[in-house]
Automatic annotation (TrEMBL):
GO terms for biological process: fatty acid biosynthetic process; steroid metabolic process. Belongs to the short-chain dehydrogenases/reductases (SDR) family. Residues 6-185 form the Ketoreductase domain. Pathway: Lipid metabolism; fatty acid biosynthesis. The active site is at Y154. CDD domains: BKR_SDR_c. This is 3-oxoacyl-[acyl-carrier-protein] reductase. NADP(+) binds at G12, A13, A14, R15, N89, Y154, A155, A156, T157, K158, I187. GO terms for molecular function: 3-oxoacyl-[acyl-carrier-protein] reductase (NADPH) activity; NAD binding.
Length: 246
């Protein structure tokens, strides 16, 4: 896999899967654009990219803000010359059982995880259509496939992302744009690492191979789907979950 001369945009890139994904594309020669809600939060990933001699740009952007997203994407095109890959990784959780889930929590998750993907995907697709090429990769989840206790809002967004992925693949294929999604299982991100040991053990037990994934496992999937090796793959959802069934 080689991304020399390619510009790769990663949202939610400050930590966890987003950070690992940005580093992976940089390792493979890509020009990496990292985006997150706070510029300060991007300092660590930018330091690592620069230390590895990766050409990189950072943008503070709220994916729910359409004007900000459109401006960011235009700036990327102006400064880098193209938008070849976008990884719509930005997402949040605000859990609660159905009978107790606050409307504000429902709306917030829908806004970031679903509308944010729409905003970024649409802005990128317009540029890619002009280029006649591009790859859009969306972050779904096993929760979007199987559902999960206490995650009505999150599951709805991740199932919705699958629907958008398949629809975009049908709409954009003639313009040389491939669209796929990745559905991670239980991944050992910094946030998950802080969970109690018994909870981590329970998560491991749900997988036939009895372990949690690493952010790099998801980054590898994104890199493959963006590469020429996956040139005949579009409209699919790649589960990277260790065989877990919730």
């Amino acid at each position: 896999m080689n991304f020399n001369g390619k510009t790769v945009v990663v949202t939610g890139a400050a930590r966890g899967i987003g950070k690992a994904t940005a580093l992976k594309f940089g390792e493979k020669g890509g020009k990496v654009v990292v985006c997150d809600i706070s510029m300060d939060s991007l300092s660590e990933v930018m330091e690592e990219l620069k230390a590895n001699q990766v050409e990189a740009l950072a943008f503070e952007v709220d994916v729910t803000d359409r004007e900000a997203v459109e401006k960011m994407m235009k700036d990327v095109k102006d400064q880098c010359g193209s938008v070849d890959v976008i990884v719509n990784n930005a997402g949040i959780t605000a859990d609660g059982r159905l009978v107790k889930l606050e409307e504000e929590a429902f709306d917030k998750v829908i806004d970031v995880n679903l509308k944010g993907v729409f905003n970024c995907g649409q802005a990128a697709a317009r540029i890619m259509a002009e280029q006649g090429s591009g790859v859009i990769l969306n972050a779904s989840s096993v929760v979007g496939i199987y559902g999960n206790f206490g995650q009505t809002n999150y599951a709805a967004t991740k199932w919705g992302v699958i629907g958008m992925t398949k629809t975009w693949a049908k709409e954009l294929g003639k313009q040389g744009i491939r669209v796929n999604a990745v559905a991670p299982g239980f991944i050992l991100t910094p946030m998950v690492e802080k969970m109690p040991e018994n909870v981590l053990d329970m998560m491991k037990d749900k997988s036939p191979i009895k372990k949690l994934g690493k952010p790099e496992d998801i980054a590898n999937a994104y890199a493959f789907l963006a590469s020429e090796e996956a040139g005949f793959i579009t409209g699919t959802v790649l589960s990277v979950d260790g065989g877990v069934v919730l």
